[in-house]
């Protein structure tokens, strides 16, 4: 099953369109072709040396994991390992990766065998996710980690910016803080936006949480809700640590 001249020309045009959507032009176009090649296509082809995208998908999965880990580690330095792990699991889930694949219209560019084509392979989530990760692996091989990071940031950055961290890490910290303050007979917390940084499309909100007449903590987020939740989390952590320290001091005095 060899491609005709017209098929080759159409494929080249399609790959150029994909590169434009991807935001990266390959120095070695063969890497992109391999990333788009499903094993069903190889199984039905008589082209010598043709490779499927499974090894590139394996590499791309590792690159994606590294880039997500580095991004959220730098963005959320105060979170615990467990909290970071839950955010990472969400970001690398097939539900998010398939969204990127659909945005790139990967289904239009896949090289599939006839059988896979007939069964709707261009719309199958697993195939789209694998191809998306394979492309990231191909970008890494072609241009290095900086190129892969740039592509990642273009397509995954908006997803990270819109994260509802409180939901992902399983905590409604504003409610937890309010309950704790009630238990220890302290006033209810008051939240105030004290600054807004950055352009309108990428604004960061800075929020202070006050308990009585004292500013307990300050935090920031890409939404007021996120900033309030993070400020509440830090305030709760600080108050509980102070309580533990006070108890330890009392035990020493006794």
Largest sheet: spatial strand order = 1-2-3
Beta-strand level of the residues, as a percent range? 5-15%
By DSSP, the count of extended strands is 3
Shape: elongated
Q: Give Rg in angstroms.
A: 25 Å
Q: What class do helices, strands and sheet pairing give? A: mainly alpha
Unreliable spans = none
| Mean pLDDT rating | 87
How far is the first residue's CA from the last residue's CA? Answer: 86 Å
**What is the helix/strand order?**
HHHHHHHHHHEEEH
Number of helices: 11
* Helical proportion, percent range: 55-70%
Largest sheet: 3 strands, antiparallel
Provide a concise account of the structure shown.
The chain has 254 residues and is mainly α.
Give a verbal description of the structure.
The protein has 254 residues and is mainly α. It has helices at residues 5-22, 29-35, 39-44, 54-75, 81-91, 94-103, 114-118, 125-161, 165-168, 173-183, 224-253; strands spanning 189-197, 204-211, 214-221. Strands 1-2-3 form a three-stranded antiparallel sheet. A hairpin with a 2-residue loop joins β2 (204-211) and β3. α4 (54-75) packs across α5. The longest helix is centred in the middle third of the chain and has 37 residues, at 125-161. The radius of gyration is 25 Å and the shape is elongated. The N and C termini lie far apart (86 Å). The model has no long low-confidence stretch (mean pLDDT 87).
């Amino acid at each position: 099953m060899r491609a005709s001249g017209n098929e080759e020309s159409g494929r080249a045009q399609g790959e150029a369109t994909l590169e434009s959507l991807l935001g990266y032009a390959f120095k070695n176009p063969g890497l992109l072709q391999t990333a788009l090649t499903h094993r069903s296509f190889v199984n039905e082809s008589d082209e010598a040396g043709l490779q499927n995208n499974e090894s590139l998908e394996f590499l791309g999965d590792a690159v994606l994991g590294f880039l997500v880990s580095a991004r959220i580690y730098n963005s959320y330095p105060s979170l615990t390992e467990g909290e970071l792990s839950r955010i990472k699991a969400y970001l690398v889930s097939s539900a998010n990766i398939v969204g990127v694949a659909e945005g790139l219209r990967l289904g239009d560019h896949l090289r599939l065998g006839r059988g896979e084509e007939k069964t709707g392979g261009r719309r199958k989530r697993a195939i789209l996710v694998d191809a998306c990760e394979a492309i990231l692996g191909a970008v890494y091989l072609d241009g290095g980690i900086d190129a892969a990071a740039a592509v990642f940031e273009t397509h995954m950055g908006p997803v990270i910016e819109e994260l509802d961290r409180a939901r992902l890490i399983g905590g409604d910290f504003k409610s937890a803080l309010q309950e704790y303050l009630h238990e220890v007979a302290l006033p209810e917390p008051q939240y105030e936006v004290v600054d807004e940084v950055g352009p309108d499309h990428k604004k960061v909100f800075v929020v202070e949480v006050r308990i009585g007449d004292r500013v307990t903590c300050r935090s920031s987020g890409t939404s007021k809700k996120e900033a309030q939740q993070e400020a509440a989390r830090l305030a709760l952590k600080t108050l509980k640590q102070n309580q533990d320290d006070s108890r330890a001091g009392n035990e020493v005095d006794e």
